[in-house]
Design a protein that fits this description.
It contains 15 helices and 23 strands. It has about 425 residues and is of the alpha+beta class. Among the domains are: about 90 residues, 3-Layer(aba) Sandwich (Rossmann fold); about 70 residues, 2-Layer Sandwich (Dna Ligase, domain 1). A hairpin with a 3-residue loop joins strand 12 and strand 13. It binds adenosine-5'-triphosphate. Adenosine-5'-triphosphate (ATP) binds next to strand 8, strand 9 and strand 16.
Length: about 425
Amino acid sequence: MIIGFGSREHALAWRLAAIDGVDRVCVAPGNAGTRSVAENVPIGLGDTDALLAFAKHENIDLTIVGPTSPLQSGVVDRFRAAGLCILGPTKSASLLETSKAFSKSLMKSAGIPTASWSAFEDSRDACRHLRKQGIESCVVKLDGPGTHGRGVVVCGSQEEAISAVRSFFAKPIPGPGAPRVLIEERLYGSEASFFALTDGRRLVPLMATRDYKRRYDRDEGPNTGGMGAVGPLSEDDLGIAPGKVVEYLERAAHEMRKSGRALNGIIYAGLIATADGVRFLEFNLRFGNPEALVLLPLLDCDLFTVSEACAKGHLHDNSVRFSPGYAAAIMATTQNYVPGEHRDVTLDGASTEGTRAGPHVFHHGTYPLQTTTVASRERVLGVAGTDETLAGALGKVYSRIDQVRFADIHYRRDIGAELLQT
Ligand code: ATP
């Protein structure tokens, strides 16, 4: 069973359904696209009781958690307590992703290079700090879960930073506790995500990818959940030896284990290559989305066996293999989407269907409505493809996404472009 409803879960279901010996794949709740490769189960992400009851009743052998929110609700703790096999961190371990303050403190104690920061629980204190220190360029972050890149404002002036601080403190924050805002040193450089798998003790590197967060070309516009991704990145593009990143990830995993929060499943670091070296921006504890659309098509091993071994603490160094070559993924969104707005768009069925070969169309925010498929989220679907070269992968994906039809469609035209120039 896969928990989630996005394109990452569609890609996971697609991979698992193709494995000999996997005779049933369920996605809770899934989307209009997952129906073509798996069985959708109408249980919401937050309904842990129902997820557990379903998994027990149907004798589910393995559960993979897609998004963060079920991790934070303790779905892994509940499944494990019931003796079920589930891939992902416990509620207390998921703090590494869901609390930016927790993750920054861990980076400090583990000696992992990161931007300097200060945390505030009061809007006036934060604004006073900005004025007193004469801070202009900085990054203001809401220390809360489920913000998906929108809890972060990269500021070019003190005015912008003050307004970001005020707006974060003015809104009700997701999750329990007082609102907390971080003011972080603004770093400059190209970004990358470095993925690994850990069973709590052993850590196996997967791949370095790049995702593109801003809504528009040339990295303009607001942050989104991600508009596209490419991979694997070379060491030059990453800006640091992969072995060094693994060493830092192992330190993070070790710190977590020491404090009784052993990790399980995916761990990935958001990195930025500054002129003074690579800095860690954050950790996430699930497949990234759209990065999953790059990793999964290139995976050249049995995802079920690897995930099960990882969940049970039996990961081996040579458990994971990737095909040679490159993958690219582009997300299509609706134009000028306002987060939280509910605006159904009808998808042209034929243009959004998946094909057996060639680029895959993974649905993201879709659901079936009578005889049509509609979408009501910012990101509607992702197209992913592979090739021997990055240019080839991008070419295939752009030709496919150019055929997709729905009202107000928007996608970036410059995903991976800077990597082709080097
Ligand atoms: P997500 O988990 O969706 O990647 P998030 O809400 O956890 O996002 P971060 O990953 O910490 O937030 O930041 C989102 C983006 O903001 C980063 O990918 C980067 O582009 C930018 N950013 C964050 N911190 C900094 C920084 N210190 N300097 C410059 N840019 C930053």
